[in-house]
Structures are given as structure tokens and as C-alpha cells.
């Protein structure tokens, strides 16, 4: 009987945003705009960094290009399925696809957390030890730190996924979110999940909270070490974009993962923020506040031959 129960659930039903077809159609257009904007903005940053000799040789922009790639991957894990579900009344996802989505969500998400922490360290070295910056943040070290971020994300996601697939699922099968994530999925297990929830909260919650504390401590140390008002103004200008990205990404993640798996009505909206909106906003945050990136984009535009001529 127990063996059969674990095989009952072969599909999960994802929660929608509305039961009205006209509303779903409107949301489809809106989220399609978000997704296309995410691709355009992040690909533009990646191409700009790769094509500009100065940006490509700078550790800061090398890390920024990797962040843009992670943002593309992160939004692609959930948004295409969300767009398809806006046009599908059933909103079904197969068990294997659900587990795969869960795995890649935590894989890329944790890798981005670690990479943002690396970027904070990069800013600390650049501002507090400027004479040794190029020596410390060599391309070799940057590649190692990026690889370590991916490896950390892989290990974290593997732990989360193994803990999930070991649970029996025999119904119900309605996931209370628009994608498969650990908190709503394990609530559907046909067994007591208290210990599993504690393990997962200690894993995801610890990573997100500790990374956020390290980031805030790093930026605070930068401001404390700089005595002059002009120096602090420049430091705030340099780190301001990083702080905005950190707040947009880590705030919702800590809210979702650093607490017991109880459900709140705002969970879906919070999930939209860090799954869909933040990957779209990151290119805008970095380009609007960065003269070097805007200048490189202008050069790229001019070389493309697409400038308007009177």
C-alpha cells in the first residue's frame, strides 16, 4: 500500500493568479514584457562587457557579466512555464519537471547569492585597498570565485532536491504557487515533514541570511573606513547599485526561506518580485547609475551602424 501511495501523484497543479481568462491574457502580455525586457537588458550587458576592452579586463564588470548570465538563467527557470500557464486552464506540471524546476531554481538562486557576496568583496578591495586591487582581484581569482559560486549553488540545490524526492506524495497535488519550490511542494507530502522543514529552513535560511549579513557588513566597513565626505559620497555612488540589487534579491528570499513553511497570502507576490522583477531590474540599476557601462553601450551602438543619420 505504501509503495503504491508514493506513485499516485504523477502531476502537480500550479496555482494561477486569476480564474478569469481576460485577466490571465492581460497578465500574459505583462509578464511576456517582463521576460523579454530581462533578456534584452541582460544580454546587452553581457555583450557590452565582452566587446569593450576596458570593461572586459575589469574584475567588477567581469562579475557583472556573470551576474547578468545568472539573471537570465534564473528568470528562465520559472517564467516560460508561467507564461504557458496563463494560456492553459489546467496548469499541470509533471512530477519530474517539478523536481527539475525546483533543482535549477535553488541551483541558480544560491549561485547568485554567492556571486553577489563576491561582488561585495570586490568593492571592498577596490575602495579600501585600491593600490593592490588589480593584484588581489586577478582574473584567475575572479574565475575561481565565480566557479565556487556555481559549485556552492549546486551543492545547496542537491541537498534541497534529495530531501524533497525522498518524501512520498499521494495527494493532494495543488502547489500553492506559480512554480515548484521547496516550501509549497513538501507541504503536499503524505508524511510528517517537521524535521525536513527544519533542515531546509536551516539550509536555505542560513545561506540567504548569512550572505546578506556578510554583504551589509562589507558595505558598512567600507563606509566606516572612509573618513572624508567626498570619499563616502563616491563610495555610496559606487556601491549604491549593489545595495539596491542586494535588497531586491535578498529581502524576498529571506522572507520566504528563513521562516517555517507556513503560507502567507503575499507569498506569490513576493515570489514574483525575486523571480521575475529583480532579474529585469538589475540591468537598469547597473546601467542607469554607471557612466562607464553607458559609454561602452554607446560605443557598441555606434559600431553597429544603427545610429540615426540626418
If you had to describe this structure to a student in words, what would you say it looks like?
InterPro entries: GPCR_Rhodpsn, GPCR_Rhodpsn_7TM, Olfact_rcpt, Olfactory_Receptors. It comes from Lynx pardinus (Iberian lynx). GO terms for molecular function: G protein-coupled receptor activity; olfactory receptor activity. By secondary structure, this protein is mainly α. The chain has one domain (21-295): Rhopdopsin 7-helix transmembrane proteins, CATH 1.20.1070. Helices cover 75% and strands 3% of the residues. It is built from twelve helices and three strands, in the order αβαααβαααβααααα. It has helices at 2-5, 21-51, 53-57, 59-86, 95-128, 133-136, 139-165, 182-186, 194-225, 229-257, 267-288, 291-303; strands at residues 11-14, 92-94, 174-175. A three-stranded mixed sheet has the order 2-1-3. It is globular. The chain starts with a helix and ends in a 7-residue tail after the last helix.
Oligomer: single chain
Structural class estimated from helices and strands? mainly alpha
Instruction: Tell the overall outline.
Output: globular
CATH architecture: Up-down Bundle
**Name given to the CATH homologous superfamily:** Rhodopsin 7-helix transmembrane proteins
Strand order of the largest sheet: 2-1-3
Organism: Lynx pardinus (Iberian lynx)
Subcellular location: Cell membrane
Transmembrane segments: 27-49, 61-79, 99-121, 141-159, 205-224, 236-257, 269-288
Protein name: Olfactory receptor
